[in-house]
């Protein structure tokens, strides 16, 4: 019994047999059709295609034979397609063999925008128009004089900025004021002694000190004056009391944390008077305060003396208010530079104000990181050619032996520059400041170490700002002599002069500008008064050969305005309290309250 068939029946009850494969061939069909006397073919006029008798084929050319053979092989042997790529490559190689290599065009790819140091060429292009723009600077300064009489309306967008009016933004709820509460009660009996080793440069050590105060207070431990670890890069053997006022530090913390200058003999006797015998905690970076409570505190109670080395960045920025208060107290109140450093620093501040009489005693400070070790560590390329490459390779090997020559390590200077990680050169700093509206007679204090290839790199900056000063220019050799071979003490002098400037310009990341940001906010009502340029944007602008002075100036003014708007920022959970003191170390001052208090007085 057959299955039901829905196709029309041909008169048979069983399915029809499939046609033979031979009957599907066009050649067989044409032969059978031509031999048959199908209806309508006999007796009529013969068609042109039927001129050949049955069994006789039309003549075929050689091309038809070859084509037919290839198609037949491709159809019946489809695996030949696997060899098609090989045939294609063979054809290309055959063609290339007929072309001489000296006529093959070489395609040169243009480097990505912002990946090449072209600032000197940009300076040469913009300098004529930049210098001619200087003629408007005097008008602004004259306009600020009380006796000035306006005879014509002035277009302020064409004028250079006055330092006195650069900061226009303030917090809507009013300014901020320092408000660190100090304890008045007695400190409970100590649980033991905490000894820490502060590593790094001046401000990394400062981080360690402030965090040590916070941890000691939290654990109710007696803090031993921190020991400064000698570093192969900074090479400064200074002790705590040679950089900071040790007596003032102890006195300021007296009601919150016990601080001593040495460990008692009866404790050290247990360890053979050898600190290497004291249990040393290897604490992970950014550990939470709960780690100190759960892990460090029991050991402190057991041993009565613990050591933490190294200690930089070993405490999370996100901590309870009690811990943050101790950090604030240590950084903004207890840490004061030693009298020799403070005295010279204040002297240089006075001299800068004297040289800034044309701007009401206000000056700009710039933190420039273009020392040899900084340039070497960045792995950026500038315009010094082979000599620069030899110098940087030698400096990297001296300071970080083998770090940059490890197998498999790939250094891409262009990508580093695009990402804004390259230190700005003195020329680039000068171009930026002139674009932001600071004219030739602006007083500038340059905080820096020894500039790499200083004679060549400093020349354009001094052309743009001839009143520029450094600590070496402001101080006599006799005044600077006691600090000359101590990098941390020299950095402390720079820190003091930068702290009291009207405008602070940071050109590279690091602890120095981060601490200054917070300290300036603490002193100036919550506003950092700091210019922080977008270095990714600068890399693109400095590599643009088509930009004109007006367009360049407009971009620089935009960067300056952005820094102003970001002057007052509130600390977020993972931000550093040393850069963002609001609201942990400062309280908001309501404007209405200020106006009432001033009217009463």
From TrEMBL:
Biased composition (Low complexity): 8-33
GO biological process: fucose metabolic process
Entry annotated with the keyword Transmembrane helix: yes
Superkingdom per UniProt: Eukaryota
GO molecular-function terms, A-Z: glycosyltransferase activity
Keywords: Carbohydrate metabolism, Fucose metabolism, Glycosyltransferase, Membrane, Transferase, Transmembrane, Transmembrane helix
TM stretches of this protein: 80-101
Biased composition (Gly residues): 34-45
Region span, Disordered: 1-58
InterPro entries attached to this UniProt entry: FucosylTrfase_pln, GDP-Fuc_O-FucTrfase
Pfam families reported in the protein's UniProt record: O-FucT
Similarity annotation: Belongs to the glycosyltransferase GT106 family.
Protein name: O-fucosyltransferase family protein
């Amino acid at each position: 019994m057959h299955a039901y068939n829905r196709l029309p029946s041909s008169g048979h009850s069983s399915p029809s047999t499939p046609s033979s494969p031979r009957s599907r061939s066009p050649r067989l069909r044409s032969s059978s059709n031509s031999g048959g006397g199908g209806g309508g073919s006999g007796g009529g006029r013969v068609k042109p295609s039927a001129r050949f008798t049955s069994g006789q084929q039309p003549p075929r050319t050689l091309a038809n034979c070859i084509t037919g053979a290839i198609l037949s092989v491709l159809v019946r042997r489809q695996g030949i397609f696997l060899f098609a790529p090989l045939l294609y490559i063979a054809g290309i190689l055959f063609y290339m063999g007929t072309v001489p290599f000296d006529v093959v065009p070489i395609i040169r790819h243009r480097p990505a925008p912002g990946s090449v140091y072209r600032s000197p060429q940009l300076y040469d292009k913009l300098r004529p128009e930049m210098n001619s723009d200087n003629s408007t600077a005097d008008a602004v300064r004259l306009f600020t004089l009380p006796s000035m009489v306006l005879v014509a309306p002035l277009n302020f967008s064409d004028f250079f900025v006055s330092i006195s009016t650069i900061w226009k933004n303030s917090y809507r709820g009013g300014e901020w004021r320092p408000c660190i509460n100090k304890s008045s009660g007695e400190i409970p009996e100590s649980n033991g002694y905490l000894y820490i080793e502060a590593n790094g440069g001046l401000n990394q050590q400062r981080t360690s000190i402030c965090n040590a105060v916070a941890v000691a207070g939290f654990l109710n431990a007696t803090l031993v004056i921190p020991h400064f670890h000698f570093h192969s890069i900074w090479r400064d053997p200074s002790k705590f009391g040679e950089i900071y006022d040790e007596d003032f530090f102890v006195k300021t913390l007296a009601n919150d944390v016990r601080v001593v200058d040495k460990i008692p003999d009866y404790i050290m006797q247990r360890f053979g008077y050898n600190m290497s015998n004291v249990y040393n905690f290897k604490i992970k970076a950014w550990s939470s305060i709960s780690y100190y409570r759960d892990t460090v505190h029991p050991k402190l109670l057991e041993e009565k003396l613990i050591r933490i080395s190294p200690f930089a960045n070993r405490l999370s920025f996100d901590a309870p208010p009690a811990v943050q208060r101790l950090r604030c107290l240590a950084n903004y109140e207890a840490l004061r530079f030693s009298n020799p450093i403070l005295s010279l620093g204040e002297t240089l501040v006075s001299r800068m104000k004297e040289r800034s009489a044309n701007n009401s005693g206000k000056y700009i400070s710039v933190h420039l990181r273009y020392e040899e070790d900084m340039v070497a560590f960045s792995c950026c390329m500038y315009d010094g050619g082979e000599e620069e490459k030899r110098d940087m390779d030698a400096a990297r090997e001296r300071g970080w032996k083998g770090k940059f020559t490890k197998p498999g390590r790939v250094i891409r200077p262009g990508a580093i520059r695009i990402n804004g990680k390259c230190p700005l050169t003195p020329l680039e700093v000068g171009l930026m400041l002139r674009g932001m509206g600071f004219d030739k007679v602006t007083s500038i204090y340059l905080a820096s170490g020894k500039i790499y290839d200083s004679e060549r790199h400093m020349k354009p900056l001094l052309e743009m700002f001839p009143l520029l000063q450094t600590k070496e220019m402001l101080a006599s050799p006799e005044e600077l002599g006691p600090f000359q071979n101590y990098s941390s003490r020299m950095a402390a002098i720079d820190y003091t002069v930068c702290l009291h400037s009207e405008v602070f310009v940071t050109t590279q990341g690091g602890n120095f500008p981060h601490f200054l940001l917070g300290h300036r906010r603490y002193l100036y009502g919550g506003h950092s008064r700091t210019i922080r340029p977008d270095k990714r944007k600068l890399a693109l602008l400095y590599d643009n050969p088509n930009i004109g002075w007006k367009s360049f100036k407009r971009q620089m003014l935009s960067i300056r305005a952005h820094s102003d708007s970001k002057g007052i920022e509130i600390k977020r959970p993972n931000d550093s309290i040393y850069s963002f003191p609001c609201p942990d170390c400062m309280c908001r001052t309501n404007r209405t309250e200020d106006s009432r208090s001033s009217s009463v007085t």
